[in-house]
Design a protein that fits this description.
Layout: H1 2-15, H2 26-36, E1 47-50, H3 52-58, H4 64-67, E2 73-77, E3 83-87, E4 101-105, E5 108-109, E6 129-136, H5 140-143, E7 150-156, E8 164-170, E9 174-182, E10 187-196, E11 205-218, E12 221-235, E13 240-241, E14 261-277, E15 280-296, E16 305-323, E17 326-345, H6 354-359, E18 363-387, E19 390-407, E20 428-429, E21 434-449, E22 454-465, H7 469-473, E23 475-476, E24 487-500, E25 503-520, E26 526-544, E27 550-562, E28 566-567, E29 573-574, E30 586-595, E31 600-609, E32 612-613, E33 621-622, E34 625-635, E35 640-647, E36 655-661, E37 665-670, E38 675-683
Parallel strand pairs: 4-7
Antiparallel strand pairs: 1-6, 2-3, 4-5, 6-7, 8-9, 8-38, 9-10, 10-11, 11-12, 12-14, 13-37, 14-15, 15-16, 16-17, 17-18, 18-19, 19-21, 20-23, 21-22, 22-24, 24-25, 25-26, 26-27, 27-30, 28-29, 30-31, 31-34, 32-33, 34-35, 35-38, 36-37
């Protein structure tokens, strides 16, 4: 894949002279931002964002380092670039749980509906970003399927951003090189090459990313061409087992599956076109996406290899109409996707239980193709003046999702040659060819005040996610047909945004109910009759002092509970009223930023994760942790800057993620020890 990366670089350089527009009117640029960003819509009231200056200081090598500053969001680090996501939710696991979050780059979904990737953020260029945004809570009324618990949008650098070259070095032979060049008006190229041997055995990775954009004009349309390419080749280390093993400096570096790996690449191309009208603006965004991934499923007996790929294309059209003080948005989205998946166990399983040895045979387990079609229509209105500085807003979206599944093997739970496994059949099951349809309507209604210093808001919203392809057709044991409904989350939220002189911030309170929650029961059937409740509070605040000194804080409180009873696949008892596992009630972040002098700037950051249950039965618990981080930057000259970062300053023993398994006991992804990184950035 490195060869592909370098070929792409050469191809992009050959395009630099091909530009149809030498300038884009500022008015068009502003209107385009409404299409590209989440912050473009004033009534997206649960938005948090980090700008370019903050990202430069962070110099993040993992998305966790960015989103620990965002209230309501927890990205837990796995091996290498792997991660799991929480947004007003527990850390959601399972074959399709990642579908609860919509990941976007420059306003375009990273993947199609039904094809989520649990590690989806490594397919974005967050290391090269100009900013990141997050909506916590349901946003399906505006953004559609998967925007149920929240939306993350990565913003690539615009043309006017500074041309720079930078490099960073750290422990475990970590190094990266970043390049950002362009002519500031016509085109911009951003590239990353990074390597890391990992602090655990056989857990390193190589990574390359390219982002290229160019302004252009097609008749009366102004816009931009965007290309994003990512490639990742990494070794994988899974959980370590045993109570509090993450505190053992010898065991926490061990890797029980040194042969495990994950190779993945992605390509996204979009064309953003914007046309100014007499009373507003129209936009059209056609896009194309292609992903490939191969990885060893080291967490399964027999360690089968999965290969999957998908190709998709679509378009989003919006028409924004200004009606005096109001804004009316109408539009539609169409999308088509094609996915292929194969799972093959290379060797016969002989060293596990008699059941596993018999039901997980050598050979192909799955080989299928799935296609999807999405048609959606949406409409929204903003700025409705109701009286006394009271403003109304609302959105509605109607979406139709069609799946077509084609099994390329024998139906049922047989070996690939048709022979029957012991214990009544193979562990996996392949359904017959079928089609499934999901039609959903999403709504959002709200009120806000329009004052100078302090404003209040209230909104009610409904979000959904359809069953993901792996949930609908990658069945197990005796289950032959999986008729799943979409998960739905309804949420009510009230809050306030405020700004007084040197103090600004926001606070919100939410309460939500989820129905048709998809999970595996004690027979390992995928079913959708789960119910959960979600309530909490999110707080952000910032106090500005003299000389660019500041104190910033985020605080998240969440109470996530089961509202049904069942046995899980590990025979744990889920009981109505239990707390959902891997859902800390309290998370916080505190940052003291100060200038030593005109040339040196320093940040001290505190990160806190409260204790949480590690099993659905609420019998086992992780104690939580508090970490400190230090960042310093200094200006050698007007062009040369230096950066020093120390993660986990006090060398705390902690777990990035903990859970309890009935067969494996306590399991942990150990956290990184104290690590220091140094970098240089040169303005070209």
């Amino acid at each position: 894949m490195k060869l592909i990366f370098y070929r792409l670089l050469i191809s992009i350089f050959s395009l630099l002279s091909y530009n149809l527009s030498s300038e884009v009117l500022e008015e068009i640029i502003v209107l385009e931002k409404k299409i590209t960003t989440l912050n473009g819509w004033s009534q997206n009231l649960s938005i948090s964002s980090l700008n370019s200056d903050e990202l430069v200081k962070l110099e993040a090598q993992h998305p966790k380092q960015i989103f620990r500053r965002v209230p309501g969001v927890w990205i837990s680090r796995g091996s290498g670039q792997e991660h799991l996501t929480s947004m007003r939710s527990p850390v959601l696991t399972g074959p399709g749980a990642c579908g609860s979050f919509l990941l976007m780059e420059d306003g375009v979904p990273v993947r199609p509906s039904g094809f989520c990737n649990v590690n989806g953020l490594f397919e974005t260029s967050y290391e090269l970003a100009q900013g990141v945004e997050a909506i916590t809570g349901p946003a399906s009324a505006r953004y559609g399927a998967n925007a149920m618990h929240g939306v993350i949008n990565v913003l690539t650098k615009d043309l006017s951003s500074e041309n720079t070259f930078s490099t960073n070095l750290g422990p475990n032979d970590y190094q990266n090189v970043k390049l950002s060049i362009g002519d500031l008006e016509k085109w911009k190229l951003n590239a990353l090459v990074a390597t890391n041997d990992g602090f655990r055995e056989n857990s390193g990775y190589d990574q390359q990313k390219i982002n290229f954009k160019s302004k252009l004009a097609i008749k009366e349309w102004d816009g931009s061409f965007n290309l994003n390419f990512t490639n990742l080749n990494q070794e994988t280390a899974g959980y370590i087992n045993g109570l509090d093993t993450y505190k053992n400096s010898f065991l926490n570096k061990k890797n029980g599956n040194p042969e495990a790996y994950r190779d993945a690449n992605s390509l996204r191309i979009s064309l953003k076109l914007v046309k100014k009208n007499a009373n507003g603006v129209s936009s059209l965004v056609p896009y194309f996406r292609k992903n490939e991934m191969e990885f060893l499923q080291h967490y399964l007996p027999g360690t089968p290899v999965e290969k999957n790929n998908h190709t998709s294309f679509g378009a989003i059209f919006q028409k924004i109409i200004n009606l005096n003080e109001m804004t009316w948005i109408n539009g539609f989205q169409i999308e088509m996707a094609n996915m292929d998946l194969k799972e093959t166990q290379q060797n016969a399983l002989t060293n596990s239980s008699a059941f596993n040895n018999a039901t997980r045979p050598q050979g192909k387990h799955y080989d299928y193709q799935a296609k999807s079609k999405v048609i959606a229509f949406f409409s929204g209105i903003e700025g409705v003046d109701l009286s006394n500085n009271l403003i109304g807003f609302g959105d509605i979206r109607a979406e139709s999702i069609h799946y077509s599944y084609d099994n390329k093997m024998l139906d049922g739970n047989t070996r690939d040659d048709g022979s029957i496994c012991g214990f009544g059949g193979c562990y996996y099951n392949r359904p017959a060819d079928r089609t499934d349809d999901h039609q959903e309507i999403s709504l959002r209604l709200g009120l806000e005040t329009d004052n100078d210093a302090i404003n209040y808001f209230a909104q009610s919203s409904l979000g959904f996610r359809p069953p993901q392809i792996n949930e609908a057709y990658r069945l197990q044991k005796k289950q032959s047909v999986s008729d799943l409904d979409s998960e739905k989350l309804s949420m009510f939220e009230i809050g306030s945004k405020f700004g007084f002189n040197q103090i600004n911030g926001s606070i919100s309170f939410y309460k939500g109910k989820k129905k048709n929650s998809i999970f595996r029961d004690s027979e390992n059937f995928i079913i959708d009759n789960g119910k959960t409740s979600h309530e909490g509070m999110e707080l952000t605040s910032r106090i500005l002092f003299l000389n660019d000194n500041s104190l910033s804080a985020t605080l998240t409180y969440g109470d996530h509970k089961y509202e049904f009873s069942s046995d899980t696949s590990t025979r744990e008892k889920i009981r109505n009223g239990n707390s959902i596992d891997t859902a800390p009630k309290l998370m916080g972040n505190l940052i003291w930023a100060f200038s030593v002098n005109d040339l040196i700037f320093t940040e001290i950051e505190m990160e806190h994760i409260d204790s949480y249950f590690t099993d659905a039965a609420n019998l086992h618990e992780y104690e939580g942790h508090t970490l400190f981080h230090l960042r310093t930057s200094w200006n050698y000259s007007s062009r040369l800057k230096g950066h020093l970062r120390i993660e986990n300053l006090t060398d705390e023993d902690y777990a990035e993620r903990a859970d309890f398994n009935a067969f494996g006991g306590d399991r942990y992804f150990p956290g990184l020890p104290r690590e220091a990184y140094i970098g240089l950035e040169y303005s070209l």
